Amino acid sequence: MEQKNINKRLLKVSLITMITAVAFENLAATADLGAIGVHFHTTKSLALILSFFLVAEIVGVVALSELSKVRGPKLAVLVGSTLFQVGIVLVSLSPNITFLILMRGIQGLGGGAFGSVGYVIINDYFDTTERPKIFFAFSLAWVVPSLISPGISGYLAQNFGWQFPFLVVLPISLIATLVLALALPKRSKIKPRVLESNPLLRIVYATIFAASILAILLALDSIPRITPLLIIIPGIVFAGIAGKRLLPKVAFSQFPALRRIILLRVLTNFAFFGIDGFLPLALFRDRGYSLALAGSTLTLASLSWSAGSYLHSRFTKPNHRGTLFRRGIAIALIGVAMTGISLYFQGIGSWFILAGWTIAGLGMGISYVSLSVALLDVAPRDHLDESSSALALADTTGVSVGTGVAGGLIATALAIHGSRSISHGLAFDAIACLLIFVISLSIGKSIDHSASQPTSLA
């Protein structure tokens, strides 16, 4: 067998193992929110446990992407994995919720290795016909964790302590790091890429962008008090200025499809993951589910997401991307509507929540992969680093802000309704999500034509 084929096989295994580790961690953190709230006697700042990881990941995405350009993806992945693992240990040692949130930031810095660098590896070593299958394999890497992580996390949290759902991720991450170290060469086989701007300056802009997003999230976490809301406006301004500097200027000016793809990823991630992060907590606090059973929402949504990704992998023609995206969003609309209605009206059985979120996961699985592959279709090769970094930033921005907004709505519902506040807050968040999905349907109409055009700018 040729060495090239052996390397490809190792790369597939290592990338899937890496995604599995990330999936375990994300699902464990979300399923563990109820136990963390009980242990630290608070429902405040739970959104920041999820969001702080993602905000720090913004800086990690840019910094590790720049490191990948200069020293190759192997070193970037190893540095990121090390930070991620150190963060897990420190999180498990947290004496209070503030320390826990800060240590999640260290995890997030390392988690940046699993964003843009992964896209570069896929582009370097797999051709256009293989990429949809790789993204489908990525979604499958969530299946096993989604089946066992929520249940295991709930069991460990209830019987041994909230720390153990984090610690169980550590050996998986170590294995992923080892396999990647064996699979990746010291240098990428692709020639060094064009440095569109000063790497250190990009890291500074990423830090300003992340700090601005964090300020917005802290203000949202302080709702319903009015004074912190004054932070939101300057936060949005500074985030807009810094975020614009992080976008690939040449590629975005000549390929408007890239701008639309990035915008759609922000919108769809905002809409879906804000609700997804708090559904287990709502079922645990408001419906009396056990932690393990409440986590089943994550399992069902991850399984249906994988099913949606599989449906997408059956269509590899570039001019199908926009059509599949719109169909996925239409399905997600139905699921979010079902979930929002059943969250608000207590008389509707919890099974309706589970069914609705399963449908939403199916639609997101189709639409998410459509955008991932569409970006690789249209991004100019010499600017792939910047384009994939922008997509990773869109992911983390959408998820973190969506989670923060959902947390703010829950805080408002806490002050107004008291009981069942989490469900009421998520129900209002679902209304905003429906509007965002409708907007996404309109923007997504232009993807088909753009993705079918050949990429230039070589």
How would you characterize the overall build of this protein?
Residues 9-448 form the Major facilitator superfamily (MFS) profile domain. The chain has helices spanning 3-31, 33-39, 46-71, 73-92, 97-111, 116-125, 131-140, 143-159, 164-167, 169-183, 199-221, 232-246, 249-254, 256-276, 279-286, 291-294, 296-313, 321-344, 350-378, 384-416, 421-443, 447-451. With 458 residues, the chain is mainly α. The radius of gyration is 21 Å and the shape is globular. The model is unreliable at 1-6 and 454-458 (pLDDT under 50).
Question: Topology, please?
Answer:
Layout: H1 3-31, H2 33-39, H3 46-71, H4 73-92, H5 97-111, H6 116-125, H7 131-140, H8 143-159, H9 164-167, H10 169-183, H11 199-221, H12 232-246, H13 249-254, H14 256-276, H15 279-286, H16 291-294, H17 296-313, H18 321-344, H19 350-378, H20 384-416, H21 421-443, H22 447-451
Helix pairs in contact: 1-7, 1-8, 1-10, 3-4, 3-5, 3-11, 3-20, 4-5, 4-10, 6-20, 7-17, 7-19, 8-17, 11-12, 11-20, 14-19, 14-20, 14-21, 15-21, 17-19, 18-19, 18-21, 20-21
Task: Please give a quick description of this structure.
The protein contains 22 helices and no strands. It is mainly alpha-helical and 458 residues long. This is Multidrug resistance protein 3.
**Coarse shape:** globular
What number is the mean pLDDT? 78
Distance between the termini: 32 Å
Q: Fraction of residues in helices?
A: over 70%
Q: Biggest sheet, open or closed, and with what strands and sense?
A: none
Q: In DSSP terms, counting alpha (H) and pi (I) runs of 4 or more, how many helices?
A: 22
As a whole number of angstroms, the C-alpha radius of gyration is 21 Å
Under CATH at level 1, the class of the largest domain stands as Mainly Alpha
The figure for the number of domains is 3
Strand-pairing-aware structural class: mainly alpha
Domain Major facilitator superfamily (MFS) profile: 9-448
GO molecular function, one term: transmembrane transporter activity
Protein name: Multidrug resistance protein 3
Pfam families: MFS_1
